[in-house]
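Sat 14:20. Reprocessing the chain from the morning session after the first attempt stalled halfway. Input below, unchanged.
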Amino acid sequence: MKDITKKYTNGEVTIVWKPALCIHSRNCFTGLNEVFHPQELPWVTPQHSTTEKIIEQIKKCPSGALSHYLNRDEGVQAPAVSTEIKVEMAPNGPLMVHGTISIKDASGNFARKENVTAFCRCGGSANKPFCDGTHRKIGFQG
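Finished this time. Tokens:
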């Protein structure tokens, strides 16, 4: 899957969307459908809500596909923070890893993932080892 990153802004906050990370939890549009509406293009319209509401909704994204930054902070390097890694199994869904991790693929290449990474547990993802939401389509239980 292509490593695509899209950005949308209301002038104060920029929403960063990485579709390859999306597990289609629907948390974004079920909580703030004036900004997130996947049946329309563009599917993200941040000018239709406040910066505070947008940030609160993005924090609910379980995969890390949605993130944000305040435009006044763009280019500012965040300080490195050492944090504990948390792993949880989503009911009938992916293995969620919270924290910054490095992943080594079969060819020996490393990828760095930050915030939340969703790993496939159902075996059906077209983007292995990452979840792509296929567990819902195939009725995965586990």
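The mean pLDDT is 87.
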